[in-house]
Amino acid sequence: MARSGPKLTRIARTLGVSAATVSNALSGKGRVSAELAEKIRATAAELGYVPSLAGRALRTGRTAAIGLVLPDIANPLFPQIAQAIELAASSAGYGVLIADSRGDVTTQTKAIERLIDRDVDGMVIVPRRGTRITDVGCPVAVIDTPSTPGNTVAADHWGGGRQIAEHLKALGHRRVLVIGNNPASNVQNDRIGGIRSALAEGAFVETLWIEPLEREQGKGCPLGLAEKVAEGFTAFACVSDLHALRALTELQRAGINVPEKASVTGFDDLIWSPVVTPALTTARMDMTRIAAIAVGALVKAIGERDPTDAAIGAPVTADDAEVPMQLVVRQSSAAPPRIQFQPGQTTANARTSAPEGEHQP
Amino acid sequence: MARSGPKLTRIARTLGVSAATVSNALSGKGRVSAELAEKIRATAAELGYVPSLAGRALRTGRTAAIGLVLPDIANPLFPQIAQAIELAASSAGYGVLIADSRGDVTTQTKAIERLIDRDVDGMVIVPRRGTRITDVGCPVAVIDTPSTPGNTVAADHWGGGRQIAEHLKALGHRRVLVIGNNPASNVQNDRIGGIRSALAEGAFVETLWIEPLEREQGKGCPLGLAEKVAEGFTAFACVSDLHALRALTELQRAGINVPEKASVTGFDDLIWSPVVTPALTTARMDMTRIAAIAVGALVKAIGERDPTDAAIGAPVTADDAEVPMQLVVRQSSAAPPRIQFQPGQTTANARTSAPEGEHQP
DNA sequence: TATCGATGATTAAACGATTAATCAAGCGAT
DNA sequence: ATCGCTTGATTAATCGTTTAATCATCGATA
Fold first, then answer.
1. For B192-204, what is each residue's pLDDT tens digit?
2. Domains of chain A
3. N or C: which end of chain A has fewer CB within 10 A?
4. What is the structure's pLDDT at B259?
5. Nearest protein residue to nucleotide C12, judged by CA and C1' positions
6. Distance (Å, rounded) from C-alpha B148 to C-alpha B133?
7. Which residue of B50, B58, B213 to mutate against A (max A Cβ within 10 Å)?
8. Under a CB-based contact definition with an 8 Å cutoff, are residues B54 and B1 in contact?
């Protein structure tokens, strides 16, 4: 209720015109003379007029609010996403309502329903791994991965995987262990696909899935990376910085120095990545751009939509659905130990990227 | 606009009564006979009636939405907080609008203004370190620390500090380095105060502040913990798990095994705490309870407030402003190395808490 | 000069709910 | 039988904005 501020009628009365004229002048819609419009804008600004969203919503059927649905709000990416979406939305004049789904599917449905009941104009959904977004009854932007059908916009996870892989290859790694969490995740599969494709010739790649392993051995169980090192693996390419962190500390704990004896890479450039020792090499998404595209497409769809009609179909589409990832090289990746080098390899090139100090045996 | 769903009048027409009666029946306010009320509720449920928030907001001046303001949305605690607040708010019938302030003070003010312009009924603010909440013009619940004036509810950070300290003391630690980020933070000061107070007799405590150090030596600089170990420090009590992680990896990297040669503790039980090796000993806040109290107090204040009056004064108060923290003992804390033990110490007791394997020299 | 069009502003209805004021009916007591 | 009170429901106003329809004015055209 615009906290006791001036209403439209207040401005109208002040200038001796009708409320409709004020509305027209401010929205630039009806027919208002230039000078009167200017005068109206001036006094509106002077009085600090802020339109009542409630009044407008009632009349137009638009609440100027969008919902943000994340599968797992405990996801460490959440801050990045929320921040980016909020920025994009607020500069487009939209508010952001959050919906928690605690990973649970039924809870997610409930959360979406609550948003609908609140009459959001649209929603941004980062779907839970593998979940298909059912028709929700308002425009929806989906941020998942380019290979997902119905995806609106996403980082080029595959390309990010390629970049990580190229980086490791250039350093001289030939036996790489890819560490993922759950094979049902589209994002993870794309990242891994990218890694494998870039490493296809001349390198051996194996994949370790954490979640199945933990179902067997219990949460937080060791991943057995020391054994993998013994098997000749020199690099651990993790599908998220969280797993990279896990790998890093497990290796360190086992006395395997990173990056001298083994390299570790992650994804997403999460908060701790630059802070740990050694700082993590990772691939970052351009969340600001992704959010801008998602919200842009959403707002466009909202504008084109007749607010009185009911459900609409598929998620909205954007012109630019694929945003490149950026490789961030830090200290957790370097050339593999000498003994692992294959004959004919350009060791010189690889060595230059290795951090100073702590040389290998 | 309750997406093409049935309106009040629709129910009224179906039953041949007036809209006012339906409204009264549903809200239980006016005078409606029991059987008619029941019939109305039944058909409302059957038709799937959802009241239009916009219509209601316009009439009552209540939007049933609250704002959530966090100083730094990149804060890794954000997911926990947001999740808890959202849960508490939604079960009280409120939606949660997020406001990003990117750490910046002016941006924070802007964000708060946007929330006001959106007519939130109240807001929950987790203030930036040291910031006093100016009068915002709607009820406000502040979550900071019990010692902050104007605080509504918070974890007992001091008590959490004491628990960490008691734990370390019981393990036998006598030289403890406390690691904080910024001395201007109320929360950090309380945590450190608690630690120091419990360690006052019979132990030596020093505090290391990261932010000042980084201003000198650059972001991500080493904290020099190996030197501290050489100086005889056996435990590093960090004011956040993020710093604990930094300390842990720096120590591991320097070849100092945790917890055999040095213990590391954190705060907040962040996402990675159970996952790293060794898993972090930490102190957790009961965010669910804190959020419930904050939102409860807020909702109460909203209910008592006359929606037409303007600014109100101080933040709302709650009966129970101090929620105890919970010590979570994991593998990163153990008895200090033998050589550090003071004569007359009950080493047996301390040893029992130490993890098996990897014995000290 | 009467008419047509364009221009600039006003009127009034509508969005969907809440609520104070009003009204009708039933019943007990005077 | 009438007055007054309670009960149960209706009427109508209201919140603040938007917008279709209307109206008045003036200049130009026939």
1. 999 999 999 889 9
2. 2-51 (1.10.260), 65-155+287-323 (3.40.50.2300), 157-284+326-353 (3.40.50.2300)
3. C
4. 97
5. A20
6. 11
7. B58
8. yes
